[in-house]
């Protein structure tokens, strides 16, 4: 593939969106085509699925199996209509969450069987795997605190379906991410996300500069 695929992962409020915005503008300043996207979502179909997953519009109980398949459906659409074409053009694609979120949340969080999730992921992504994944690791309490502060600032009521899960669920997700990162050392870059925003931005840039230099000849 001509382009570069980067994903950002981490628990709630770990700062992924903030860092993706900063990284994207740095890369664009170098003349690189950057596509920023997110999961669930990233396509019209994916955004509709996101609404179901985040806000449970029907009010009906969403079974764990249904949840897994909805995340996978959003991902399958996302890969084929956004990520793959952008990578073929040579763009840098930065995704706010990708396949590791399913292993962390549905696998380690909900306790669903990881080999089955890996199979479903494989079916959805059709060999499109990020070259580099930044794991922004943060204590669950700190992340939730940031979310509540942000929501107060933008006068948004309440929290979404996943954010309202128990503290122990979110702790299992965080621990799961660290296990996934240890298992995939070549792809993962672990960042301690309780640091200042500027400091984290610098750490990410240091990690990515070399790869971009090779692929896009940036300074
Ligand atoms: N999910 C997703 C699954 O269960 N399975 C899957 O397969 C997939 C793909 C998505 C949900 O879906 C789940 C996981 C999620 O629960 P979402 O709304 O996209 O939900 O939620 P998140 O991805 O968690 O995004 P958030 O917006 O909640 O958090 P971010 O993007 O990590 O954090 P960000 O940058 O918005 O920052 C949050 C606040 O903290 C501040 C920011 O200004 C902002 O106010 N902040 C900092 N404050 C202090 N120091 C720093 N270093 C800071 N960095 C940011």
Tell me what you see in this structure:
It is a single chain. It contains eight helices and five strands; from the N terminus they run E-H-E-H-H-E-H-H-E-H-H-E-H. It is globular and about 50 Å long. Strands 2-3-1-4-5 form a five-stranded parallel sheet, sandwiched between helices. The chain is α/β, with parallel strands linked by helices and 219 residues long. It has helices at 16-29, 44-55, 64-89, 99-109, 114-125, 140-153, 167-183, 197-216, and strands at 4-9, 34-38, 92-96, 132-137, 188-192. 58% of the residues lie in helices and 12% in strands. The protein binds P1-(5'-adenosyl)P5-(5'-thymidyl)pentaphosphate. Residues 10, 12-18, 38-40, 71, 96-97, 101-102, 105-106, 146-147, 150, 162, 197, 200 line the site of P1-(5'-adenosyl)P5-(5'-thymidyl)pentaphosphate.
């Amino acid at each position: 593939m001509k382009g570069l695929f980067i994903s950002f992962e981490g628990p709630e409020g770990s700062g992924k969106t903030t860092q993706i915005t900063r990284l994207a503008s740095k890369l664009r300043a170098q003349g690189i085509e950057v596509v920023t996207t997110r999961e669930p979502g990233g396509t019209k179909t994916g955004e509709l699925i996101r609404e179901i997953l985040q806000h449970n519009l029907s009010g009906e109980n969403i079974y764990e199996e249904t949840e897994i398949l909805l995340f996978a459906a959003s991902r399958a659409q996302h890969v084929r209509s956004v990520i793959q074409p952008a990578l073929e053009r040579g763009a840098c694609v930065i995704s706010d969450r990708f396949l590791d979120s399913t292993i962390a949340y549905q696998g380690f969080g909900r306790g669903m069987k990881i080999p089955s999730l890996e199979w479903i992921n494989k079916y959805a992504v059709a060999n499109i795997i990020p070259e580099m994944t930044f794991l922004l690791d943060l204590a669950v309490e700190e992340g939730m605190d940031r979310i509540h502060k942000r929501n107060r600032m933008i006068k948004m009521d309440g929290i979404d379906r996943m954010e309202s899960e128990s503290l122990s669920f979110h702790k299992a997700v965080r621990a799961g991410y660290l296990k996934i990162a240890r298992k995939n050392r070549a792809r993962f870059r672990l960042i301690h996300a309780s640091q200042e925003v500027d400091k984290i931005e610098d750490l990410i840039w240091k990690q990515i500069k070399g790869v971009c230099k090779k692929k896009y000849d940036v300074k």
